[in-house]
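Task: fold both queries, return C-alpha cells.
Query 1:
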Amino acid sequence: MKKQTISVLAAALCASSLLAGCASKEPQETTAVTTEPVVTETTAATTAPTQATEPSVPETSEVTVPVTTTPETTAPVESTAPTTAETPSGSYINLDNMQFTIKGKTYTLGQTTLQQLIDDGVPFNQDDLANANNNLNKNSQSQGFRIELAEYWSAQVYTMNDTEENKTAAECYVSEVYLPLKKDNTQDILTFAFPQNMTMEDLKANAGEPTDTKHYDGGDGYYTDTLEYTRPSTKYYGNSGYTFEFTKGQLNYITIEYLP
C-alpha cells in the first residue's frame, strides 16, 4: 500500500513539475515578441532623419546662385560717372548749365549744395569744413571752402544764400569754383569741360571771342591776359560766367561763377 501511495505521489510531483516547466516557457515567448518591434521602430526612427537631411543639399546650392549677379550691380556705377563736365556739342562754355566735376562726379552751379559735396566725400580742408554749419545771412556769399588737390595746392568753392532767410553754408548751393593752376603740375580731382592746359587760341577757337578781355604788362617779359565769357545777373549786381587768366600765355587761373 505504501508503494502505491509513493508511486501516486511521485507521479503527482512529476506532473506538477511538468506544469511548472510549461508555465515558465510562456513568459519567454512573450519577451521575444516584445523585443522585435522595439528594434524595428528604433531603426525606422534612425533612418528617417537621415533621409530628411538629404534634400537640404540642393537648397543650399540654389541660395548661392544669385551671387553671380553681383557684377551687374556695379556696371551702372561706372557708366554714370563722367570724367568731365558736359557741355553741348563739346563747347567749353555753357552759361545755362555751368558744371564742374570732382573725382568723376559732375555737379552744377546754382543747384548742387555744399552738403552734397560733403556727403560725396569731396576732400575738403578740415578746418574749413568745421565752418560748414555756420550761419549764412540772406543774399550773401560764404567764405571759401578749400578742396585739397595736392600738397600746398587747393581749389575753393563758395556757396550763396539768395533767399530772404538765414541758412547754414552747407544748406546753400555752390555759386563759385576757383581753381589756380601750377606750372608743370597736373591734378585730376577737379576738372571741367575744357582742358586745363589749353592756350588762348584753343579757347577762342572753341568758344569764340570773349565778352571782355584785359591785358596787363608788368615789364621784364611778365604779362597776363584775362578772358571772360559772362552775362549780367538778373537779380544782383555782377556777372555770371567763366573767367580765364593766362600768365605769359599759359592758363593760370580758372573761375566759374553763378549769379541768378
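Query 1 returned. Query 2:
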Amino acid sequence: MFRACFVLIVFLYSLPQAFAGIFEVSGTANYRRSQINELNYQISQSVTASVSYYFMEMSALELSYTEGTSTLRIQTLSTDPFAEYINKFTLYGLDLVITLAQKESVIQPFVKVGGAHIIKSLIKKGETGSVEGPSVDPETVPSAGLGLKIKLTNTFSIKTGIDAWRTQQKGEDAKIDYAGRAGVSLLF
C-alpha cells in the first residue's frame, strides 16, 4: 500500500505545470484519557498524516495514514489482579474530498467519500504477561466523512472533521467505526 501511495504522489507531482493543482499536507491528532481512579482508566490516542492533491479548484484526492491505540485498564481492588486490553489499529485511506465553499472563503466545509484498508489487533495484558487477542483479518472498507477547514492564511489552515468506516468481519454484522479529528494543514 505504501508503494502505491508513493507512486501516486510522484505521478501527481510530475504532472505538467499547466495541469498541476495544489498539494495540501495535513496532520491531525487525537488524545483522550478518562479515569475512574489510578487503577481503572481508558486512554485513546491516534495520529493521522495526509496528502491531498487538488485536481480541480475545490476537489481533491486525499491519501491518509492513521495509527493509534486504545487502552482499557480494569482492576476492581488494589489487591486484585489487573487486566489491560490494548487495541492497536492502522488505517490507509484514499478519499475524494469535495469542498463546499469558494477557494477564497475563510470557512470551508467539506465532505469526503472513499475507501480504507484497516489492520487491527487486540492484546490482553495481565499480571501473568501479554496474550494476543482474537484474530482480526485486515479488510478494505468504504469510508465517508465531513469536516470544516478554517483558513488562517492563504497557505495555513485549522482542520477538523469526523470520519467513519463500515467494517464487517466474517460472519458478523457490519459495524461503524468513527473518529473525530483536529489538526492543521499547509498548502503548497
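Both queries returned. Flag for query 2: The helical segments are 2-13.
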